[in-house]
Amino acid sequence: MPPVVKPARDLRLDFFRGLSLWFIFIDHVPSNTIGWITIRNFGFSDAAEIFVFISGYTASFVYGRVMAERGFVVGAARILKRVWQLYVAFVFLSVFYIAEIAYVASNFDNPLFAEEMIVLHFLQRPEIALLEVLRLRFLLPNVDVLPIYIVLMLAFPLMLWLLLKSPYFALAVSLAIYIGAKAMDLNFRLYPVDREWFFNPLAWQLLFVIGGWCAVGRAEWLSKLLRSNAVAALCVVYLVFALWLATSWLFPAVAQRLPSWIFIFPLDKTGLSPWRLSHFLVLALLVVRLVPPEAGFLRSAWSKPLILCGQHSLEVFCLGVFLSFTAYFVLVEVSARVLMQITVSLTGILLMVALAWLMKWYNDMDRRARQPAT
Amino acid sequence: MRAFAALAATLALGAAANAAVPERCMVPHALVEPHALLPRVSHAVKREQKLDIVVLSGAPSQVGLGDGPRSYPWFLEKELRERLPNTQIRVVVRAAPRRSAIELIPTLPQILAEEKPTLVIWQSGTVEAYRGIDADGYGRKLQVGVGLLLEGGTDVLLVNMQYSPRTDAMVDAAAYTEVMRAVGQARDVPFFNRYRVMREWSETGAFDLAALHIGRTEYEEIHRCIGALMAEFLVRAATLNANASR
Questions:
Q1: Do B59 and A115 lie within an 8 Å CB cutoff?
Q2: Which domain CATH number covers B143?
Q3: Residue-level pLDDT at B5
Q4: pLDDT surpasses 90 at B201
Q5: Does residue B73 belong to any structural domain of this protein?
Q6: How many angstroms separate the Cα of A310 from the Cα of each of A16, A154, A301?
Q7: Over the stretch B111-143, which tens digit does the pLDDT of each residue have?
Q8: Does residue A270 sit at the B interface (CB-CB below 8 Å)?
Q9: Would you tell me which residues 144-163 of chain B have a C-beta closer than 8 angstroms to some C-beta of chain A?
Q10: A346 vs A374, higher pLDDT
Q11: Is residue A86 part of a domain?
């Protein structure tokens, strides 16, 4: 069996997961002008890829050790406990969201948006809507990363077992599911009618498993790949190509001269299009090469807030979703001006950091309380 | 100074002053800058002094079908007549309640045969986004539809969904807008970003789009602005000088 884990926690994981949480929050505040700074505007992939990849990596890292040392049952039990926390968080956020939407719906009578109101039709049968929330068939936008995380983690005990037994076989299974889902156009269904999950778990599991594989696989050829200058150069070329395509609409003079086959719609987020996947992997490869685990800035005071957020990702993610509704509410009810958008975005990030710090405080306290006893 | 400038403009362009976009509707120039041309519109106006437009939409209330207040196609016609006084202008609305762009494609040849338009203004995205139809598939179908229209001998102008702050959190408007922009680029047809224009109004406070209730006057005011900006956009995309055809 390959060596399972390195003992020290890789701060890069926390740093970039924290960053993805900030980006997800900023992108989730509807019509937020600040959103242009986030990575989705500079290439094919966005913060969701970072989040899913790192979640796969850390899940594999943390539970892989447990499963290797204490067996399948204990490892699986730990994972399922996490699934339960995610599920409770998802139900809580959905209820809050429905309450907010119901308020809008019951007071809204603006002929300008008659067609847009079809989105509220589910409120005619609230009992069904609530049941569908519990069945994970009623997903509101912004909450949609949570349910995919739930499904991926639910299937993870088996996948982790496979990853520990035979990393390459696990990767092959995952790839087969991805290709199968694409070929047969499979996705999870949603209520109300003819809708599908925004993040197709059958597609996105590949990135999660790739993350997990990186944590346990530790393949020799991967390190060689990481060190190769030729590979790095190719990666840079690909990133520049993606940047150029992503921003070409900003320069109509350039865009008009492009051949039409180049408009490849690198946009299929639901099915995690190969363009997005490859863009993320290339980005990750370069980041791993450029930022060594012992990089000085990871220990600087400036990185602390990001790392803290990354270390308490579930709580911070949920708060982020909650805050994005609240920010939206403020923008709609108070003012939608750009200054207000900046204010709510910064306030939200501050609150996320504050929560992460509070969670750390609780954890430290628990640890201290436990130490005298043991 | 301002009066002098207005006088100069009046002298230079004749009736142009009353064909300007109302101040309240104003948005940064870049938001309403066409990135493609309308050659057939240009030809029809310059050679035949005639312009037949069909507005195609899956959202009837947005294009003023029924006996509600007047909507942007009505104002577009009026604004175009002011800008192109010697041209015979007709704007017809073809709307199919809650039908997505995909479902409209089979009806396109019939519409072309019946109306023989020079320009089809194709408004879509609302039904798709709010029903959660996959943006990628929508883009491919839209591209097919645009191709059909172009082969049928008309120009095409794409218009995206409205910006509705109250429901914006529930849809991924950006995805559908990006798809439409890409279709516009791929087919070399102009794209009028109505969503972005309305968001601009919301951000600058020009209109309170989050209001729970609005009266007929405000509704028509918003649609008049859309119509006026669209007329400006169209005139520029067809490389016409407003009032130059006199």
A1: yes
A2: 3.40.50.1110
A3: 44
A4: yes
A5: yes
A6: 7, 22, 15
A7: 999 999 999 999 999 988 887 777 888 888 999
A8: yes
A9: 161-163
A10: A346
A11: yes
